Automatic annotation (TrEMBL):
Pfam families membership: An_peroxidase
Protein's name according to its UniProt entry: Uncharacterized protein
Keyword Iron: yes
Cross-referenced SUPFAM superfamilies: Heme-dependent peroxidases
Length: 237
């Protein structure tokens, strides 16, 4: 993580130093504004193979008292282990349950020759044993998407179902629950940028050039278009 403030680069800060009790103390010294500006000007990592931060493969965890545990954690290995222990379906079976077409060979999953070589080394020709997490990271992306097709299916299903199942979006969506001011916030908030403006007035005006807070903040803003989204032609608007 690079620390930035007032348009000046202040230094490079290893992310492991922001973990645990010492990390919380250090973050409080840095302050919220500097944290947000620093993170806003740095792109997040792509969801693909071989892009897992190395420090998360040797993570020092803490016990309830805040002391470091002697055994370090390999987080990506732990995620695969947890999926297996919880009987999460493997990649192909997961796609079947979503009524998606399963793969029959590694070339169906990716065009990356190095990825195919490593997948063959680990799994051989046992396509059905491919772990879900590995498959999601290896799967070729739809043009313009940051996530795979399989992950996008889950996103679409879960987003709608979580809204429909959340009582705060249905039965309790009223002033009695949210208060009049709170409900006004809910009904007028369109983006993360609005949330930042509400809690830290002036931050986006001073530091954010991009249209969306999820984009790197110094990216050029999107051109304004008066054509409704559903009528726009990709690549032309």
């Amino acid at each position: 993580m690079y620390l930035m403030f007032c348009a000046f680069f202040l230094g490079r800060l290893p992310l492991p130093e922001l973990i645990g009790a010492n990390g919380e103390k250090f973050l409080s010294e840095i302050g919220f504004t500097r944290q947000m500006v620093s993170m806003g000007h740095q792109a997040c990592g792509a969801l693909e193979l071989w892009n897992y931060p190395n420090w998360l493969r040797n993570l020092t965890s803490e016990d309830p008292s805040g002391r470091d545990r002697p055994d370090h954690v390999d987080l990506p290995a732990l995620e695969v282990y947890r999926d297996r222990e919880r009987k999460v379906p493997r990649y192909n079976e997961f796609r079947r349950r979503l009524l998606m077409i399963p793969i029959s060979k590694w070339e169906d999953l990716t065009n990356d020759k190095e990825a195919i070589r490593v997948l063959t080394e680990v799994y051989g020709d046992r396509i059905e044993e491919l772990d879900l997490l590995v498959g999601l990271m290896a799967e070729k992306k739809i043009k313009g998407f940051a996530i795979s097709e399989t992950a996008f299916f889950i996103f679409i299903l879960m987003a709608s179902r979580r809204l429909e199942a959340d009582r705060f979006f249905t039965s309790y969506f009223n002033e009695e629950t949210y208060t009049k001011k709170g409900l006004a916030w809910v009904n007028t908030t369109e983006s993360l940028r609005d949330v930042i403006d509400r809690h830290s007035p002036g931050m986006t005006k001073k530091w954010m050039n991009s249209t969306s807070a999820f984009t790197v903040w110094d990216a050029p803003p999107q051109r304004q278009s008066w054509i409704p989204l559903y009528l726009r032609i990709p690549g032309f608007m």
